[in-house]
């Protein structure tokens, strides 16, 4: 199944031989019954294929894993309960205390929180590359303890495009796996594995599920990294559970997924409900149609916003004015995704007026929905960050982020025009937009 739209409806499905149900059934069960003592022993020991308990594996979830692995052209996928769980599981399958993760500066705020508040407390060192387009900076910051290079294919919310092939080269020169969060691009727009990423991570809560109803996440091992030759002693060294053999000895090229599934995902336990696996799989069946339409509309919206005098800048890599435009032309030929940011020159006061004036856009934190959404990052998702860090990652007081849905483009632009009219109608006086405080009304709503 080489064509994407064919694979998205057929790859990995579990046909129901007993009843002929055409859609992969929802196996909503905690555990699986054994026919005999011998079968139970065989399933637990791995000698007999089959399921034991849904925290370690489930047929509906496995069908989703096969489908996403196929769409990313990866070796194997592990599905978990959210995008955050996918990042946590992917990284804990690699790092331990004393190891160092090198990440692009511009990443989703929850990922930054996981790095700085979660993993750092466990003794993992985190460092950010200020200019991810500068390969020399990635090279310069690698330490003997660096075990992961990390970035987002399209960064949330700045929409900077990662030079995946360039960073992969730096990673591989140093024998380090390269982990890429492909949530905003989806495998329809970009397959990071085609350009050298070794592990691809998704929040399936966004475009894969696509309908704003379900949380989920996936970790895909692309099969490109040589685990046998790696510095990961938990994969290459003797393991008690494997009678003194190593994960590489027993599982070969599947060593990372075998360890990450059985030790990290299963024992830390951020499991995906089979019901959510079903819903995400159903969402994937229309992925290419939705993402193409959403990207096309986002480009039209970005062009319209760029022409408004009240707007001082638009962050969308599909526009020639965006610094990542050359990378977008190289990596994102079908479209540049459906998330974009724009800055009102009137600063936070203008952003508040705009935000309160729209009627069709939903005011909420999320992306990838069929509905269009609007967010003021500086007062909500990024409010907890020190101002220098926030503004260093491009989150100014006048920035609004949009996630474009499937509504008619003319209706969306008419709604944005309502926001612009609200800004234009008010005499917003700005002496220094960058230094302007966030209004109390907005600051009060700030969350993580
Ligand atoms: C790029 C990216 N990665 C990961 C996540 C976390 O996903 P989830 O909300 O499913 O935990 C998000 C959420 O917005 C995201 O935008």
From TrEMBL:
Its cofactor is pyridoxal 5'-phosphate. One of its GO terms (biological process) is transsulfuration. The modification N6-(pyridoxal phosphate)lysine is found at residue 206. InterPro entries: Cys/Met-Metab_PyrdxlP-dep_enz (IPR000277), OAc-hSer/O-AcSer_sulfhydrylase (IPR006235), PyrdxlP-dep_Trfase (IPR015424), PyrdxlP-dep_Trfase_major (IPR015421), PyrdxlP-dep_Trfase_small (IPR015422). It comes from the Bacteria. GO terms for cellular component: cytoplasm. GO terms for molecular function: cysteine synthase activity; homocysteine desulfhydrase activity; methionine gamma-lyase activity; O-acetylhomoserine aminocarboxypropyltransferase activity; pyridoxal phosphate binding. The keyword Transmembrane helix does not apply. This is homocysteine desulfhydrase. It comes from Leifsonia soli.
